[in-house]
Design a protein that fits this description.
It is an enzyme of class 2 (transferase). Its EC number is 2.3.-.-. The chain has 147 residues and is an alpha+beta fold. It has one domain: Aminopeptidase (3-Layer(aba) Sandwich), CATH 3.40.630. It has five helices and eight strands, in the order ββαααβββαβαββ. Helix 1 crosses helix 3. The longest helix is centred in the first third of the chain and has 12 residues. The two termini are 18 Å apart.
Length: 147
């Protein structure tokens, strides 16, 4: 994917060298989650990450994999806390939908993650299922992109 300019934000493929910067905006990785840090590095090496970049630097990132029944799956969407509520997540989701190479594009989030569910609905994604047992007491809601 070439860089896509959306207002003052550019969405483009991440460079492998940016994995440390992405760790810096990922709340889970910042808290010391070694698995998340390793995943960010691997996703960058594998070319699976799109980043949103503004004048102040990286604002968020999105990871798409094609291992969910050979369909696109947004594995991770993270927006820096200072950039939330400014349309960065929506821009990343729209860019992912436009560049998806499979017929369908899915994602999921916990029932407790109301901000992500609102974002998905505003971006035109539809809930398609509920899975219990991943996070105790907090089922996972699966969404399909209506593109």
């Amino acid at each position: 994917m070439d860089a896509t300019h959306l207002g003052d934000v550019v969405v483009r493929r991440a460079r492998e060298s940016e994995s440390d910067a992405l760790v810096g905006i990922d709340a889970v990785a910042v808290e010391g989650d070694a698995h998340r840090r390793a995943s960010i590095g691997k996703w960058c090496r594998d070319g699976l990450v799109l980043v949103a970049e503004g004048e102040s630097g990286l604002l968020g990132y999105c990871v798409v994999e094609y291992t969910f029944f050979e369909q696109g799956f947004v594995t991770m969407l993270m927006v820096a806390s200072a950039a939330r509520g400014r349309g960065v997540g929506r821009r990343l989701l729209d860019a992912v939908a436009a560049s998806c190479t499979s017929p369908k594009l899915f994602t999921s989030t916990n029932v407790s993650n109301q901000p992500m569910q609102r974002l998905l609905r505003r971006a035109g994604w539809s809930p398609v299922g509920l899975l219990h047992g991943l996070d105790e007491g907090d089922p996972e809601v699966f969404y399909l992109c209506d593109r």
